Amino acid sequence: MSFSVYLSGEIHTDWRAEIERGAKAAGLDVVFTSPVTDHPASDAAGDVLGATESGFWRDHQSAKVNAIRTRTLIAQSDMVVVRFGDKYKQWNAAFDAGYAAALGKPYVTLHDENIVHPLKEVDAEAQAWCTTTDQVVEILRYVLKA
């Protein structure tokens, strides 16, 4: 069975690469997709539409352009992994989890125990809460090979 997995969330660590390496080592037929993880490029995605008078409108334009990719790839995925890091608030990741839930896409969250409380609603809808990338790989192995 082939599977498409969208990797959403935190962009400051190599968690995506860890999952991809683990899936490859386990011999899993998985295609991974993700948002644009180059932070400056993501922030500038809407700049092609012209200069704006405020940071709000620049962010608004870029969010809409980024949403073309995000919505398409989440809709095409079989599963979504949503990573929440400790350093930054990933509101976009929480939105991606909600979008996946609204589409009926299964998703798992990946975060440390110290942010369980602020993510209680996101975790409540998730099919699993993982604390390590190895757990994510094991879930993928189970789903694809069991």
TrEMBL record:
Top-level taxonomic group: Bacteria
A Pfam family: Nuc_deoxyri_tr3
InterPro entries listed in its UniProt record: YtoQ_family_protein
UniProt name for this protein: YtoQ family protein
Organism classification: Bacteria, Bacillati, Actinomycetota, Actinomycetes, Mycobacteriales
